[in-house]
Design a protein that fits this description.
By secondary structure, the chain is mainly beta. The protein has one domain: Beta Barrel (Thrombin, subunit H). It contains 2 helices and 12 strands. It has an 8-stranded antiparallel β-sheet with strand order 1-5-6-7-8-2-3-4. A 4-stranded antiparallel β-sheet has the order 9-10-11-12, with no helix packed on it. The radius of gyration is 15 Å and the shape is globular.
């Protein structure tokens, strides 16, 4: 088995066990990991979240530094987008402020990508709008992920 193949298999095994990397970022099925900055700002009008890409890395590299970076996730909502052969999933992590969003191929039930954020709060609604995955957090924030480039996420508070 190739080195990439073993990472890809590990990702799929962990996904089936309801685990994803507990780091702010987007993990792709080939092991690419885009690290994201996620900042929660509290002010008089309420909470605001800012998110932006920081760097490209790999799951293999992240695991070299922390073998226990996996976080348990729980699905709170899903949406089947037959046109794109994608089942979308969103929910929470094990900490109260964690949230995740994921895309899984309907045809073979394999993870395409998963985004995890430790300051988003759980995501409780999900749908597709104009080719983008749109989720709503328990803060009431609307997050829009382009399906092909989820790292280009935009947040509306």
């Amino acid at each position: 088995m190739s080195e990439n193949g073993s990472v890809e298999n590990l990702i799929q095994e962990k996904w089936k066990d309801e685990l994803c990397p507990g780091v702010n970022g987007v993990l792709f099925s080939d092991g690419e990991l885009i690290l994201m900055e996620c900042v929660l700002l509290m002010h008089e009008r309420g909470a605001q979240v800012r998110v932006r890409p920081l760097a490209r890395s790999t799951l293999r590299s992240a695991l070299e530094f922390n073998e226990n970076l996996w976080a348990f996730i729980t699905e709170l909502a899903s949406y089947s987008w037959a046109e794109g052969n994608i089942r979308l999933s969103c929910g929470e992590g094990s900490m109260g402020s964690d949230g995740y969003v994921a895309a899984v191929r309907i045809s073979d039930d394999r993870l395409v990508w998963a985004a995890f954020f430790d300051c988003s709060n759980p995501f409780e609604e999900i749908k597709v709008v104009n080719g983008e995955v749109v989720v709503v957090s328990t803060y009431g924030h609307r997050w829009s992920f382009p399906i092909e480039h989820p790292e280009r996420v935009m947040v509306q508070s």
